[in-house]
Amino acid sequence: MDEAREKRKRFAALVTGELRAARRPGAVEAGGEATAARPLPTPPSPELLFEATRRAAAKDGLDIIPTCCFSCNTACEVLVFKDKATGRVVKIEGDPSSPVTRGLACAKGLAAADLLYNPTRLKKPLKRLEPRRADQARRMTQPEPRFDANGVPEGWKEISWDEALDEIASKLMAYRESDGAKSIAFLEGTRRGWSRVFSRLANAFGAPNHGAAGWAQCLWPRLVDCRATFGAQYPESCDFEHSNCVIVWGSNPAATWPLQGAAIMDARERGARLIVIDPRLSETAAKADLWLRLKPGTDTDLALGFLHLIIEEGLYDRGFVESWTTGFSELSAHVKWRTPEATEALTGVPASAIREAARTYAMAKPACITRCVTVDQTIDSVQTCRALSILMAVTGNIDIAGGNVLVSSRGEISQNSHEFILAAKLPLEVQRERRGYDRFPLLCGELSSVPSSHMPTLWRTILCGKPYPVKAALIFGSNAAVSYTNSKLVNEAMEKLEFIAVCDIFMTPTARMADIVLPASSWLERDNVISSFQTSLDHTVLQRKCASMGESRSDVDIICDLARRLGLGQYFWKNSEELYDYLLSPTGLSFRQALGKRRLYAPLKFGNYLKSGFKTPSGKVELVSSILASKNCASLPAGSALPGSQGSGIASSKDEEYPLDFSTGARSIFFRHTENRQNPWLRAQQPSPLVYLHPSAAESRGIDEGDLVEVSTPTGSALLRARLESELSPDFVEAVPGWGGEGNINNALGWERFAEGIGTVPMRGLKCQIRKVADGR
Amino acid sequence: MADKTLLVIDLDRCWGCGTCEVACALEKKSGPGTGRVKIEEVREAGPAALPGSPQGRAFVPVLCQQCDDPACVFACPAGALAKNASGIVEFDADLCLACGACESACPFGAIALSQSSGMPEKCDLCASRQSAGLLPACVQHCPGKALWLGSSLPGIDLARGHKRSWSFGKVEYRARG
């Protein structure tokens, strides 16, 4: 450690030590002193700060363009500063006048100008010069692409948009003609505002094989649960402002959702109790009144244990349960044996902590639970989500101030509907050809947000050509070569594809495998209408194009242009602005008019169900789900069997070889998924992939802090840097995903097991071994 | 001394995300990884309450404390560092010899010589932003709202639940428990 860092660490320890002592000379302590009640100064008003920002910018010769960031799904309102003379974006700041963010912005948004000016940014459509097979060696030996003086990657040539889109369109139509539309995979990445337009293209084209690396592993299980349990998305949003108790279930908003993190800190400051459930003492868990360190992947068991206690002690909301739920007695019988002691045996959480957490949540009403991707990534994903929804329901914490609440739009048309994506355009016999259709109805059929392929099944089909050949892929905004589990197999499958077109902003490992690469715009270069439960409970925010880079175009414009060339123009819009005008049409505003208002507002409403009931078959909250039963899925979350009973703890010969519990749940605020590693401002903050482990697990293997460590499973391995944390369970290892190359933990994630009905690849509760490896550093 | 506090850091709201570090490096255009504030963690084995963390993992933003008796000012052979009227330790590039005495003298690791210019870089609480009526970059953007400009009315804020406070110079650290 360098000297300055040592001094800083000593100082940090001094600060906490002195605050704890609090009576040293120079320290001030509350209570009865005349100085004690002095409040913090009120910060300048948002209007004053915005005005000062405007004046300072004018003095510096800068234009301010208000927009919102899309470095993650939150869409924080930001100000983009452009040099009047050069047109260059010189900085990005949080918008101090935003009622949504109150001026905050995280590192990703502040440093986002790099999306424009990074030398490796794609600016023109590209065509590969030699066959993919000939190029394979170069891609293996050069982990990063090389660019010539004009910014063209080695082995590629620039072509016109007409040439690029015409070639893609003719290839897609030729494959549809020769092998059927099922022979073309429509693949996309994380949600970016244009995702459903891409889904619409897949359906309009007649392609049943459409998917993403997320979906069955991200949000889709939660949304299936919402549909089955409530008929609406009540569980996905929390009214923190009025809550007495917040449970953060398996997520770490401090690193992944700063706006939510700030709201939770506000609630805590107001006196709300904070309970965090996480195998790791995350940044959010560090602030918890109660931290439950569960064994990874046992979330369903813990939630069912909460339910046992709440029912056993009569802490549930009798009125709500009697009037508005079905299946309560069956549920009671179902969790009967799940005492705190039995739950401790399954989850590793002490029975006393289970009692305290369950009682606190049930008695603190109103209380809320925020859940994120962890509950989608267990081995029983939909059922984990269901267990949490049932907790919310029996405690009556649904659709009330301070509870889990329903966020709807401010009148604009949502893209997240089967109607918008033209799901009905795909004939049933074509849908049935979708890979995974028979086995995973919750993902591939009408209950899914976007009826889509089971991706492990589709990749295997691409690899082996059975039951039918899949020959081409159209990939928008997805770094598929890195972001899918079982990475080696996926890369082999991609090599087999005859034709790949990729639309992205950088020359990713996936783009390097393509035949045609299209340059997409970053969020700084596109318009958007954003109403999302991840943004705000009561605002729709608007994104405004701030810059343009080379010939890059917004994904919506590219998709609409491609659709015209595929003869599907009648289903699409002339350009993205026409789409946004259409989406906003019920509000009476055009997109330009809405931009002038900055954002649309409508207050959050409670008690929605009192008017119209719940949109489930019974009209009530279905604790026992008739919808899941109709799909031959468990109607109540089963969880694990009691240890020692029949069917529990299936021992495997691999247990000794791979003795450590393992998850890929850790995240960093500087990156999202596979994004941002190219950004020097963010990369400097976290230069390499990390794996968290306990000092004793490290010591017995000769591993020191910062050492290069191989994490291996029967599927494969990855190299990550050790970060030792004494708060972890000694037999648990947690890796940070999203890195390419040797650090890609997806190399170690296999496809042995999938969640019932939806096909989730589990990323919690896995097993691995670790060892120190030689390090060239 | 309390009424001269310039910056208040609420340890209960700092979750160590590092946005202040990036905001500072971008504001000062000093290059990736060069923010003049750095988050350091304090951990205590096992769940033990620390100021700012009931679970024993606290995050402390470390930056120039604008000390009342600044070691860097005394160490500088050229008089390039000096306290100004508002209590900020200011740096005068014209006088600086780039000798590094300030970096060695600072007991908190809050001054570093720039890799490019060789001159010391330290927090000035965004003097130029403040003179334009703006908040320092770290204060405005802090996702946890853990940083507060405390130019005139510091002290303990019972309304916000602060029970403890400590400062070495013009930067005041606070905690509830």
Topology:
The complex is a heterodimer of chains A (777) and B (177).
Chain A: H1 3-21, E1 28-29, H2 46-59, E2 62-68, E3 77-83, E4 89-94, H3 107-110, H4 114-117, E5 126-128, H5 132-141, E6 156-158, H6 161-179, E7 184-188, H7 195-205, E8 210-212, H8 220-229, E9 237-238, E10 245-249, H9 253-256, H10 258-270, E11 273-277, E12 290-292, H11 299-312, H12 318-324, E13 325-326, H13 328-334, H14 340-347, H15 351-363, E14 367-371, H16 381-394, E15 404-405, H17 428-431, H18 441-444, H19 455-464, E16 472-476, H20 480-483, H21 487-496, E17 499-504, E18 516-519, E19 528-530, E20 539-543, H22 555-565, H23 576-584, H24 591-597, E21 599-601, H25 608-612, E22 621-622, H26 626-630, H27 654-657, E23 660-663, H28 680-683, E24 690-693, H29 695-699, E25 708-712, E26 717-724, E27 732-735, E28 766-772
Parallel strand pairs in A: 7-8, 7-16, 10-11, 10-14, 11-12, 13-22, 16-17, 17-18, 23-27, 24-26
Antiparallel strand pairs in A: 2-3, 3-4, 5-6, 5-18, 9-15, 19-20, 20-21, 23-28, 24-27, 25-26, 25-28
Chain B: E1 7-10, H1 19-28, E2 38-43, E3 57-62, H2 71-75, E4 81-83, E5 89-91, H3 101-105, E6 112-113, E7 120-121, H4 127-131, H5 137-141, E8 147-149, E9 164-167, E10 171-175
Parallel strand pairs in B: 1-10
Antiparallel strand pairs in B: 1-8, 2-3, 4-5, 6-7, 9-10
Structural descriptors:
heterodimer, A: 777 residues, alpha/beta, N-terminal domain of TfIIb, Rossmann fold, Dimethylsulfoxide Reductase, domain 2, seven-stranded mixed beta sheet, six-stranded mixed barrel, B: 177 residues, alpha+beta, Alpha-Beta Plaits, 2 domains, four-stranded mixed beta sheet, two-stranded antiparallel ribbon, 17% helix
Give a description of the structure.
The complex is a heterodimer of chains A (777) and B (177). With 777 residues, chain A is α/β, with parallel strands linked by helices. Chain A folds into four domains: 46-112, Single Sheet (N-terminal domain of TfIIb); 157-219 and 411-599, Rossmann fold, CATH 3.40.50; 234-406 and 619-630, 3-Layer(aba) Sandwich (Dimethylsulfoxide Reductase, domain 2), CATH 3.40.228; 654-772, Barwin-like endoglucanases (Beta Barrel), CATH 2.40.40. Helices cover 33% and strands 15% of the residues of chain A. Chain A has a seven-stranded mixed sheet with strand order 6-5-18-17-16-7-8, covered by helices on one side. Chain B is built from five helices and ten strands, in the order βαββαββαββααβββ. The chains are: A alpha/beta (777), B alpha+beta (177). At the A-B interface, helix 1, strand 1, helix 2, strand 4 and helix 10 of A face helix 1, strand 2, strand 3, helix 5 and strand 9 of B. Strand 1 (28-29) of chain A pairs antiparallel with strand 9 (164-167) of chain B, so a sheet runs across the interface.
